[in-house]
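REQUEST FORM: STRUCTURE PREDICTION
Request ID: SP-0412
Submitted by: Lab K.M.
Chain count: 1
Length (residues): 424
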Amino acid sequence: MSFRSGSISCVRCAVASGAAPQSVDDALFEALQSNRIRPESAGQGTDTASGWIAGRHLLDLWFGYEANAFGGCLLASMRTDMAKVPAGLLRAYRALALDEAAGIGGRSRATAAAGGAGAGEPRRVTRADRLDAKDRADRRGQEELSQGLWRRIAERPMLWDLALGTIWSPVGSDAAFEQLNTLIDSTFGCRIERQTAGRLASSILSARGRSRDFDDLLPSAFVPAPQGVATDEDGAPRTIGATPDVPWATIHPADWLGNEFLLWLWWATERQEGLVDTEDGEVAFVLERSLDLSCAWGVSGESAVRGDAPTRTPEAARALLSGKWPRKVGMTLSTQGRAYRFTLQADRLECAGLSLPKPEEPPSSERVAIEQRIDSFLTFDRAMVSLYTAFVVQRTADSWAAQRDAMRTWMHERALSRVSVAAG
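STATUS: Completed
RESULT:
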């Protein structure tokens, strides 16, 4: 999944500290070249080696304007090589070495087991034999690693808007993000952070001089706390409060805002026909295909609904009343005459399987095609940020209490109507 072709999956990151590069120039390309992937280092004292590739393919190490500079954006990829002999194979190599030390081969072992001619007692294996077997197995494994065996290669494309200080890359997992963060730090001397729902909301309000409003935020209790037993990370019972605990908000404590954002979008699809006015114009959206929910109190478990209109099912209505919040949903978003289809994980604002609209006319070259894709993706990102900004501004306004009450009423009304329809 790449910015160059196909669907796109990514999280949004931002430069958090250090002096980031200001332009895509020769100095930047030299820095990438100096920190390019060195596959031979994987398996030489470390299982993993990460470095830059230009991004056209896994062996592309030519960095330059044509391949990597698109307007004010840098387009490159992090390649990660993981080299490790399977543990079971190492055990097998040691067992074979021990058999050899004991004078037992494949044929002689079978003969001895049958009690046939030539059968004899194997030599007693000593501690020295075991140490030698381990050493021989490790050497054999190391030789195979040096020959390129037992290697897994991962490529993670990265689009970096230097003016905005924003980076998009499929580094949703903690391990992948830390690999990219370390590589950017060693290459450019700056650190990044994932712009999850909480962090992006903090940035939005800080830019408006409203940081105190963010500090005062607490999760909304749209329904009463569910009955049941909740446990902490160690499995011990914990008290269920009137305000949701939102146990999955682990990167930033306010990442639950992303889930309230999805709930607000859900409400807007049924009360505002899926239309929201933003600072950058009207954005239209539809929730479709898939809906995953989890209990905001950590009591009533999880639910998954699939279908053309999962948010309109009786199962989804009951899930809301039981204290579940949307975690991940399929969406189609329309802005500036373009339609984008994707799946959004709310707390991390992680986009998966984003399909970009096809251009009206075929591009005249591969570079033009990439330029059009990047422009289209940036249009999508601006629309998403504008949509989230509209929610955050409303969420921190004095009118939110009335909005929350309206959403509570909507939850109960839709649950009653969905149950009635299902019963009929």
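NOTES: The chain has a mean pLDDT of 89.
Reviewed by: T.R.
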